[in-house]
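LAB NOTEBOOK - FOLDING QUEUE
OPERATOR: T.R.
BATCH SIZE: 2
PURPOSE: Compare the predicted structure-token outputs for two unrelated chains run back to back under identical settings.
PRIORITY: normal
REVIEWER: second-year student, initials M.K.

ITEM 1
FIELD SEQUENCE / FIELD STRUCTURE:
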Amino acid sequence: MPQAFAATVDRTMALAGEIAARHATVAAFRPEDALTEVGLTSLDLVNLMLAVEAEFDIMIPPSCLNPQNFHSIEAIARMVEAVRAGTFQ
């Protein structure tokens, strides 16, 4: 995993961990785990999206707002990297 991507994953994991600590059903999870399976709700995912936008100083375009991009921390990190690079299609 490239270092920049790993840093994005780590930062996103920290954000998700704060949200999950409130009421997720799984206390610890991995970057590849499905976020809905660890107990995050749709409202939690919206809060995570807002936290990601603030943390990375980006605006996630409407074309990125789909379940695949918010499936896991790794998926979110890939999307963040693509948005930052201007390569998201």
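ITEM 2
FIELD SEQUENCE / FIELD STRUCTURE:
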Amino acid sequence: MKILREGQYVSWWDNDRKDFVFRRLLQKEGPLTYPRTFTALTTDTKSDLVIFDELDPDEKHIYQLLLGVSPGVYYYVWHPYDEKMLKWDEAGDITDIDEDQTAVLEYEDTPYNDPQFEVWVIPDKYPALQVKRIQHEKVIPRVVFKGFKFNYEEVTDPTVLDNLKKGRVPSHPISWRKLE
């Protein structure tokens, strides 16, 4: 994961403004680790939807995280952005989460001890997961989010905004994606 530094810029689409917003990263905190263990799953079972609202930052914070998962289950990750990345709901039907906004991950995609799925968490856009067992024996699913928390400020200077929008000043687009 390319960990961003203080002074760098990030951007994301704001549905309310119908435009991209840009933020300059300030102080970095971490590394942080957020593990979660689900209840055991048996044949043809799935977990309840788990919402990670404890990762919902306040209005001046943002998280850059990697998600790692344990083997033996499909992890349906609720994806709050209007982007389609990774493989989308190829593993089966899921009714508890809007499947157009659901990424399906397995251990091979992003191992628990070597996470490869980047997740950016901005205010009111935090992840939710549901797991479905794929092995014959009982499985206890585990996930972990590892990364950093940043303070940030909104970019309002018209000259800097223009340079960011035209690509003269680099910004890192916020997304959920498998690392290259």
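REVIEWER COMMENT (ITEM 2): Confidence is low (pLDDT under 50) at residues 81-94.
FOLLOW-UP: none requested
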